[in-house]
Amino acid sequence: MNAPAPMTPPEVLTALGASFRLHEHPEVTSPPEVCAALGVPLERTVKTLAFVTPGDRLLLAAVPGHARLRYGALARAAGVRRNDLSPADAGRLARAGMRPGGVCPVSADRAAVVVFDATVGGLGRVHCGSGRPDSSIEIEAAELLAAVPAAATAPIADLPATAPA
């Protein structure tokens, strides 16, 4: 007998009573492609990178779409060694109700470790992965963080310097 499919991030958000909009778009995998499909600036997106730690634990790192992840800072915030971070494969993501190209910090995997960059909460209304590469979630950043109450918040991203005026 097959186990039931895990809840997708939109199903988790719905169960939590979160207010969000789901936007369908062509299948895309990079933040710039998502921005082009939705007509939103990269600064208004949250990208989530997925890793597996020893013991097959899922680690989700959510950073502003235009930022670069600081792997050492993520490892410290998650309480693991930098060398223990391995990219999550499609099979591991599927067990969390997601597919590559649509990773979301909200997951059906209750054992997942989630770390938000310290700047995410102040971004206002953002777009993030929905668990699928052909749709995105639009949600208030504060509500996104509230949907993952056990998440850590830490300075895990490097933001690009603003261009001179």
Which features does this protein show?
165 residues, alpha/beta, YbaK protein, 8-stranded mixed β-sheet, two-stranded antiparallel sheet, 10 strands, 28% strand, aminoacyl-tRNA deacylase activity, YbaK/aa-tRNA-synth-assoc-dom, YbaK/aa-tRNA-synt-asso_dom_sf
What does this protein look like?
The chain is of the alpha/beta class. It has one domain: YbaK/aminoacyl-tRNA synthetase-associated domain (YbaK protein). 21% of the residues lie in helices and 28% in strands. Strands 1, 2, 3, 5, 6, 7, 8 and 9 form an 8-stranded mixed beta sheet that branches. Strands 4-10 form a two-stranded antiparallel ribbon. The chain is globular and about 40 Å long. The protein starts with 8 loop residues before the first helix and ends in a 7-residue tail after the last strand.
What is the structure about, briefly put?
This protein has 165 residues and is of the alpha/beta class. It has helices at residues 9-16, 31-38, 71-78, 90-94, 141-146, and strands at 20-24, 45-53, 57-64, 68-69, 86-87, 113-117, 125-129, 135-140, 152-154, 157-158. A hairpin with a 5-residue loop joins strand 7 and strand 8 (135-140).
